[in-house]
Amino acid sequence: MQLKKLEFHKNENKNKIKRMNLKNKEKLEYVSIGALFKTVILLIAMLLSACVLYAQPVYRFTVKIGIDKETADSLGSYGEVSKRVVKMFQTINAAFNNEALGITGYYDFVPDMDSLYIYEGSSGVERKPHPHHDYLVIMDGFRNFPDEGHGGWFGSHHQTIGHDRGHVPGKISDPFDEQATDGIIHEFGHARGLIDLYAAAVDPSRNPINGMRFQPVTCIMNYPYGVRHWSKYAVNILNLTKDKIVNVDEVIANLLPQKINIVVKDWHDKSVSGADVRVYPVVWYSYSVGSEPVWTGKTSDDGIYTFPDIPFIRQRAYGFKYCNLLVEVAYGDRKSYGWMPLYLVQNAFFDGKESFELEIILKEGHTLFEDDLSVRVKK
Q1: Residue 13 maps to a domain
Q2: Which domain holds residue 369?
Q3: Is 0.90 topped by the overall pTM?
Q4: Where would I find the H helices in 62-207?
Q5: Contact of 336 with 362, CB cutoff 8 Å
Q6: Closest of 336, 329, 372, 102 to residue 215, by C-alpha
Q7: Which residues have a Cβ under 8 Å from the Cβ of 52 and sit 6 or more positions away?
Q8: Is 328 helix (H, G, I), strand (E, B) or coil?
Q9: Collapsing DSSP states into helix, strand and coil, what is residue 216?
Q10: pLDDT confidence band for 56 (50 / 70 / 90)
Q11: Total structural domains in the chain?
Q12: Domain contains 237
């Protein structure tokens, strides 16, 4: 009896072990299938992301970074500096990759963390050749030398951004804060061929012709702080330069339609022939209108004045001498005005037009503002 009882328990234990093994096998198979399913879903998601990404051409640029010792020390460690750099460039790339605005490429500014270096001394002497990288960014949050505190895009010859944030001598300013990041996005815009749109602005107190203000279109290249919008003109330039390393002045120098016309009409939409046309200049960053016209003429029988040459006047720096023009038309006792910024005229080139036409309605004291321009510039 005792032997049978032991055999019974032995057999029962074997059956339990078999059942446990079977359950564990089923559980393992279930887990394996679940894990496989999750892996497949993850791979599909990655594949779809890659398809979305590579549906656009990828414009990749390598960036070498130097940061001054005082700023690096203020952050506590090299690891913290690296962390801040990576986060900043994630924000920069996100700002450029706005497909909804019509940007056709995927921008990838890549900070080379292996070449990141900490320097001592003035940031002004750090503008050095960087043959193994597309761009150099010199970061400085501590102004302790007379030649510091003047950041920005240092020009196509250097392909370098001075990210100087030490506005107050002897005090650390964070080069990675939100405002600083907004500023460096603007500077990378220059690196990709974009001009300062704010250079065309006009202060009404410095406009002796009609005392009117001109405020350029909303864009990171006009006012970058808190802004994540590229204007139509900026998008056109980005789509033109693509992945090329460019000279800003050369980029904009040849982007004009064949003809530039002023079309003058009366309030009843009839052409005005014989109207006097005077064109006053706005020099880059002057924020003022010149007191003397640089172009004068009269409208033809069909109410059109065609510039005999490029009205913005070619020069090497910035491509043109003038970035904006104030157009005055007069006939009898009636006088009206229209703004003609360079970026607006160049958009006509990108639209494939042979001519740009600024239509001005002859009405006492009437001035075309930015909202008017989008209507009055002929489509």
Answers
A1: no
A2: 249-376
A3: no
A4: 69-74, 78-96, 178-191
A5: yes
A6: 372
A7: none
A8: strand
A9: coil
A10: confident
A11: 2
A12: no
Tens of pLDDT, residues 64-103:
999 999 889 988 888 999 999 999 999 999 999 988 889 9
Residue in 201, 238, 194 with CA at minimum distance from that of residue 216: 201
**Residue type at 310 in one-letter notation:** I
**Distance, CA of 121 to CA of 144 (rounded, Å):** 9
Three-state DSSP class for residue 323: strand
pLDDT tens track for 217-265:
999 999 999 999 999 999 999 999 999 999 999 999 999 999 999 999 9
Question: Can you give the CATH number for the domain in which 117 is found?
Answer: 3.40.390.10
Q: Is residue 242 part of a domain?
A: no
My answer on whether 148 and 259 are in the same domain is: no
Residue of 318, 308, 257 whose CA lies nearest to 285:
318
Q: Which residue has the tokens 């990759």?
A: 97
Is residue 66 packed enough to be buried (19+ CB in 10 Å), middle (13-18) or exposed (0-12)? buried
83 occurs within a structural domain: yes
**Which phi and psi (to 5°) does residue 100 adopt?**
-65, -25
Distance CA 129, CA 256 (A): 33
Q: Which residue has the tokens 């009843």?
A: 268
Do 91 and 187 fall within a single domain?
yes
Instruction: Please state, in angstroms and rounded to a whole number, the distance separating the CA atoms of residues 29 and 25.
Output: 6
The closest of 210, 231, 255, 217 to 352, measured between CA atoms, is 255
131 close to 156: Cβ distance less than 8 angstroms:
no
Question: Per-residue pLDDT for 38 more than 60?
Answer: no
Same domain, 258 and 365: yes
User: If DSSP codes are grouped into helix, strand and coil, which group holds residue 264?
Assistant: strand
| Nearest by Cα to 109 from 50, 60, 56 | 60
